[in-house]
Amino acid sequence: MHKRWLMPGIPCLLFLLAGMALLPHPGLQHDELFFFGPIHSPDSSFYDINLFGSKLVCMVMSYSGALKTWLYRLLLLLLPANRWTVRFPALLMGVATIYLTWGWVRRIAGERAAAITALLLATDTMFLMTDLFDWGPVALQHLLLMGGLAAVQLWIAKGSRRMLALGGFLWGLGMWDKALMVWPLAAMAVAAICVFPRETLRRVRHGAGIAAVAFAIGALPLIWYNVAQPGVTATANTKYDAEGLRSKLPALKRTVDGSMLSGYMVYNDPVAQPRRPRTGLEIVSVALRRAIGDHRTNWMLPAYGLGLVLMLLLWRTDARRSLLFLLITSAMVWLQMALNRGTGGSAHHVILMWPFPVAFLGIAFDAGAVRLGSRGPAVLAALVAVLSLQNLLTTNDYLARFVVNGGAGGWTDAIYPMEAALEQMPAGWIGTVDWGYLNGLRLLPKKPFSLFMPDPNPKDPMFQQQVRATDFLFVQHTDDKQILPGSNDKLREAAKQLGYEEKVIRVIPDRNGRPVFEIFRFQAIGGGGTEK
């Protein structure tokens, strides 16, 4: 019994510890906090329903529901809002996904294949970082997908209609959470028909009604929205575009090899004003990176190549159908995102293929070891250990660069001192000029700020009032840190036409000491300089 729990327990613990090491470093990013918008400003929700006289947030975007908003509304009633309360629950969702994946693979391929899958998934850098920071969002998608799949597998094994209903309900919740759940669901349906045609048709005849009803209950808010706004989720977000197919291959490659977030979430070397490591963990992480050198990529690309070769060698074995199911599912998920305009070019889309590619490797490696006979266990242990170690070194590379270089772009840790400075300044309203920090200013303050996004139109009476009011403050990135280049100049030019200029009150640096934000108000041109 203890050995059985160790198999998923060790990978889950590795994943948890790695996530906790990374968690504090990047600043809270706007999309990571997208769920919080309707909590702070109920009118900002995309679609509401009236239930017994009360307004209930239903959709946050046309393809993203308010499930995470509901969950965090309850959580933040009990706990203070900070990086730990935002990220640690998402990290636990990743832990649960690993456990569910282990259980599912164990049922279809055995203990050893499940253990390999769990270890490779737990050490996968992109799976860890996309779940932990969850700007996709993807953590609930993975959890609900695998929760539903594990339940359906139990129905197949034991005939439990309750498990079938649970699986359908969880998949419906996943569709409401984010309609991109359709990618893996459609992919699994295609793969099942291709690989298990008779079994699939028989199961559909016996369970389609129960699954459909349960699915509809889980997805009810999404269905309600698409009845009120006929089919808008599909029509607004599905645009076939085969021309971008080739350009999306690098994103697939870089997600597999772990390098996709370099330069986006963390600064690459070299940087101005590198920070010295301080804690014991930081010192060890940075020393390890210096000792082994740059390690932004793992060895998973050749591992998948080996997996495909093994599949051909195992074609006449019992593993063939499971491997074919996982390969078709993975390929179909990617094709759906790659053939749709605006998707498939980022890690948070590509990672929605997971955990199927990793399960493919786990089963292929296990079955391949059987073919090697007595040498198989030793070769398998060495292979999995090397791949897992390479994954962990890639994760450490990110950690060391977070420590020394700091979070890049919208992930800057300057969000924290900037918010603290604003809490000390009297202001009626605070305007956010650039993208990337509005939701941070919604979540972090102890007392909510009155926030707005200025529209730099000098002919607009509202903009004229915002510029002329003495109790209005504005926050912008420094010119070299703008996420939407030109945002600062547009505002300055519009204010200049009204006879006003910026008066910078405070410049906010990140923890490396690099200026990132400027807090300012407007004054009549020639009225004075920067406040000290």
Write the layout of secondary structure elements.
Layout: H1 2-22, H2 37-40, E1 47-51, E2 54-61, E3 64-65, H3 67-78, H4 83-109, H5 111-122, H6 125-133, H7 139-158, H8 161-177, H9 182-195, H10 197-218, H11 220-228, H12 232-237, H13 249-257, H14 280-292, H15 300-313, H16 319-338, H17 347-350, H18 356-371, H19 376-404, H20 415-423, E4 429-432, H21 438-443, E5 451-452, H22 461-468, E6 472-477, H23 487-497, E7 500-509, E8 515-524
Parallel strand pairs: 4-5, 4-6
Antiparallel strand pairs: 1-2, 2-3, 6-8, 7-8
Helix pairs in contact: 1-4, 1-5, 4-5, 4-6, 4-7, 5-18, 7-8, 8-10, 8-11, 9-10, 9-16, 14-19, 15-18, 16-18, 18-19
In helices, the fraction of residues equals 55-70%
Count of domains: 2
> What's the quaternary structure here?
single chain
- Main β sheet profile: 5 strands, mixed
Major sheet: order of its strands?
5-4-6-8-7
Overall mean confidence score, pLDDT: 94
- Round the Cα radius of gyration to an integer and report it: 25 Å
Question: How many strand units?
Answer: 8
Which consecutive residue ranges, at least 5 long each, have pLDDT under 50? none
Number of helices: 23
> Beta fraction of the residues?
5-15%
Envelope shape: globular
Cα distance spanning the termini: 66 Å
Structural class: alpha/beta
